[in-house]
Specification:
CATH class: Alpha Beta
CATH topology: FAD/NAD(P)-binding domain
Radius of gyration: 23 Å
Largest sheet: 8 strands, mixed
Distance between the termini: 41 Å
Number of helices: 10
Number of strands: 24
Oligomer: single chain
Helix content: 10-25%
CATH superfamily: FAD/NAD(P)-binding domain
Number of domains: 1
């Protein structure tokens, strides 16, 4: 590497060109004259590319849209006394790369978090103080559901989320989610048309006294024009959603929702192939981002405002490598960077029906969900269960490769050979699964730091996850398997294989890309990296967005909340910080 090239200063530099980085760029460039540069380490993407990308082997099996683990990965261990090892194959989560990030290949599920999530520390101590498992480190976000609710609606409008309100201005609405927080507006779009399978789930749940509601999803149920004037087509139910970019633009993605508003802005620049490695600080302010560009040259981009909007692990790694803030120490509980690492508590209940299901059709979030066993509804003192999660039945579209091989128990003796193949073909379109996602408590012993042994291709230390399940997560998925099996049988299904979290956390199978924590928001610099506006406590011109800012996870997918929080950050930055450049909290 040669001498670092220092560029002319810009007003704002943003690391990460996904949902939050491009949304902040759009808000800043449209509402101020400031110049904005976005540094994205992956390659450019445009919607027209996706029309030729419907290759299941390439995208679903080989995961073309994900980060190259040969260049950079992570390490994992179960506790602080164990040795960490690198993750060499995609497993428990799949980080995206390229313009749009994981927002290009997501499924579109767009849940609001339960109201108490934003004050979970206070809530669970008030409700379960004497029953809390050891080392639970849940804490408040420094804001309330009512404060974020208008931004939830802005996010739903931005993406054209379809769904059915269950609590409209405090009035419960039949057919929606009766357990949701009050919303001031109905969804921008109606729900998707449903399939035989999802309607069977809905009817069975109603017959059991449960409360199914349409999964809210950003795969537009009909043609849609958002408040920014961006138009998208309605869903064609082709089934190529998750791990694919949408070939018709029905699924909300940063490239079809935000990029059209930025490409002609003279005060905006997107630089691809730029791997950000360090944040430079001096005198209590962030000064620049240092990166390696697409040609391999070391570059420094000075800016008056620095924003980190990369994925959870990358945001945290950047602060740790830049030595900004105090690294979290689980032994003492001191330090904030790396604190409150959470994932998603997931379970799966496979079952079989006699009727063909047309599983090859669908959309990323098409289906029904129940919250009857989520949050406080799941409380069971005997089982040691304080909070639960959501069960859902979706028709997402099953490709013939990734979904092949499910056979009812006892159908054949071996899981290979001619008889197994014959049975797998017979049952391929008669197999389905009820899925569960639960909130994950943050624990004192689960955290992020830099690995002392393993490095990326540039010689920088990899991020290390110290993470394991506890009895509470096992209780969550035991409950999920029991309740999900009851629903499957009520649907007339024969229950096959089921999966909970297991004895230990595993990196070998997919459990969602919903990783949270590491640079969390909160009400105090002693327990958080950022204030509730996403502003760094010590460096007032440094802002951060994304899942790394969440003090804990909830049962719903985090994207909608990430975007709502980004709107909050944008408003605080533009309307308040630019007028008085100091702390906002």
């Amino acid at each position: 590497m040669g001498r670092m090239k220092r560029l002319k200063p810009v007003d704002v530099v943003i690391a990460g060109g996904g949902w939050t980085g491009l949304l902040l760029a759009k808000e800043i460039t449209h509402r101020t004259p400031l110049s904005v540069v976005v540094l994205e380490r992956g390659q450019p993407r445009k919607s027209s590319d996706y029309a030729t990308g419907m290759d299941e082997l390439d995208y679903t099996v080989r995961l073309r849209m994900m980060q190259n683990l040969a260049d950079e990965t992570l390490t994992h261990r179960h506790n602080a006394k164990a040795s960490a090892v690198p993750v060499r194959q995609y497993g428990s989560f799949q980080p995206g790369t390229g313009t749009g990030g994981a927002g290009e290949h997501w499924g579109g599920l767009s849940f609001r978090f339960p109201t108490e999530t934003f004050r979970l520390g206070s809530h669970i101590h008030e409700k379960h103080g004497d029953r809390l498992p050891p080392n639970v480190q849940a804490q408040d976000w420094g804001l309330t559901y009512d404060e974020i609710e208008p931004n939830y609606y802005r996010a739903e409008q931005l993406m054209g989320v379809g769904g059915k309100a269950g609590n409209l201005k405090g009035v419960k609405v039949p057919g929606g989610n009766p357990f949701e927080g009050p919303r001031q507006h109905e969804y921008p779009l109606p729900p998707h048309k449903q399939t035989y399978l999802t309607e069977l789930f809905r009817k069975s749940c109603v017959d059991m006294g449960l409360h199914p509601y349409p999964v809210p999803t950003a795969t537009a149920s009909q043609a849609y024009k958002n408040p920014d004037g961006v138009q998208r087509a309605g869903c064609m139910y082709c089934g190529y959603c998750t791990r694919f970019g949408c070939m018709v633009g029905a699924k909300a993605q940063p490239t079809n929702t935000l990029l059209p508003l930025l490409v002609y802005q003279k005060n905006f620049e997107l630089r691809n192939g730029c791997q950000v490695r360090r944040l430079v600080q001096s005198g209590g302010k962030a000064e620049a981002l240092q990166y390696i560009d697409a040609s391999g040259e070391e570059v420094e981009q000075p800016a008056g405002l620095v924003i980190l909007s990369s994925w959870t692990l990358n945001n945290t790694r950047l602060l740790l490598m830049s030595k900004i803030g105090e690294a979290y120490d689980p032994a003492t509980g001191k330090g904030t960077v790396g604190r409150n690492l959470t994932h998603q508590v997931s379970a799966n209940i496979r079952f079989f029906l006699e009727k063909p299901l047309n599983n090859f059709m669908g959309a990323g979030g098409l289906g029904y969900c129940i919250d009857d066993y989520d949050a406080d509804n799941a409380f069971d003192a005997k089982a040691g269960l304080l909070r639960g999660g959501a069960l859902r039945m979706t028709s997402t579209g099953e490709g013939p490769l990734a979904s092949f091989g499910h056979v009812p128990p006892g159908e054949v003796e071996a899981e290979w050979g001619a008889e197994w193949k014959k049975a797998a073909l017979k049952w391929w379109d008669k197999s389905a699964a009820i899925s569960f996602e639960g909130g994950h408590f943050p624990y004192r012993q689960n955290y992020l730091d830099l690995d002392p042994t393993y490095a990326d291709k540039f010689g920088d230390p990899l991020i290390r996850l110290t993470l394991d399940w506890t009895d509470h997560e096992r209780a969550q998925t035991d409950m999920a398997v029991k309740r999900g099996s009851e629903i499957a049988r009520a649907m007339g299904g024969k229950v096959g294989a089921t999966r909970g979290v297991g004895a230990r956390y595993s990196v070998t199978y997919y459990q969602s890309t919903h990783i949270q924590g590491g640079t969390i928001v909160g009400g105090s610099p002693e327990t958080s990296v950022l204030n509730s506006y996403g502003q760094h406590w010590q460096l007032p011109n440094l802002f951060m967005t994304g899942g790394s800012t969440f003090p804990e996870s909830a049962s719903g997918n985090p994207t909608l909340t990430i975007i709502a929080m980004t709107y909050r950050t944008a408003d605080a930055l533009i309307d308040r910080y630019l007028k008085h450049q100091g702390s906002l909290a």
